Amino acid sequence: MPRPHFLDLTDRGLSRLGQEILPVLYRHRLLTAGQLTQLLRPAAASTRYVRRQLEVLHGRGLVDASIRRTSRAGELLWYTTALGCEVVESGGEIAPRAYRMTEDAAASQLQEHTLAVNEVGLAFVQHARQLGDECGPLDWDPEVAHRVRDGDSRLGDEAFLVPDAVLRYIHTTPTGHGGQQQRMLLTFFCEIDRATMSIARLAAKLAAYARYARYIPQPVLGRGRPKASGYRREAWRARYPSFPRVLLVLDGASAGQLAKRADDLRALAAADGRLQSAVDLHAGITTLEQLRRQGPFAPIVTPVLGDPNPTDVLLRPSAAAAAAACV
After folding, report:
1. Could you give the 3-state DSSP secondary structure of residue 311?
2. If phi over 0 gives left and psi between -120 and 50 gives alpha, with beta otherwise, what is residue 306?
3. Of residues 9 and 283, more confidently modeled
């Protein structure tokens, strides 16, 4: 699989790997040396070489590290410094992000959630390698805001939907015609719950996805009044060829407890008319452990609505969605 483009940092005395590490850290905020090794040097027998490059980057003020709160051995979690962010952004290969990791944020209680989000991305990357698909170290974006309601942006959660990550994946399947293959771009809205969010809040996030699937923005006239005629297309169509699949990934508890959480979420979803009428919403639940072991296209995903049996639902878009996603 091709490696991500690297920045022109040769004048800083960095190796190719050092140049690859910096944009990956910038994009994903907080990573362990083990995660970076699996993303960038999966054939390596240890993390030694990656750790050595991180030390070089640290010596040049481009990255820093925080101690993992749950680690007794003092495992380090790496992130880009303000200088490192400026260097990545000046390279022009990655869209600048308003959010920057700070020393306080890196040491906060959000450590494990950030690492879990990246574990989901890593699971997709690893299984893409095995299947001959395409999903690389830069193919997911954390916390991308999507407006779901017109009006004052100060409404916060009421105005915006912010998935934990938006992940892009190109899946290749044989067509049966002379060895030709069909390539399909799959986009996922990923939500990761480490058994810390209430089931009611998880259900509310699903309702926000249903609202986004239907949301048609209205141009605004003076004094915030919407124009009468308005638009006729849903906002998501300007970003995605088909509405992304919603993948809820559970972690942070025993398998039995996670199964109960999934059942409770399905029960709340079944009682919500907003979800029942959202025809474009394809949402499923799995666990991080299943995703790691079996991959995203195994029968490990329980649909949020309908049949309670795990399925390979992620590979079953509608005919219209499949046609739109072909690349």
Report:
1. strand
2. left
3. 283
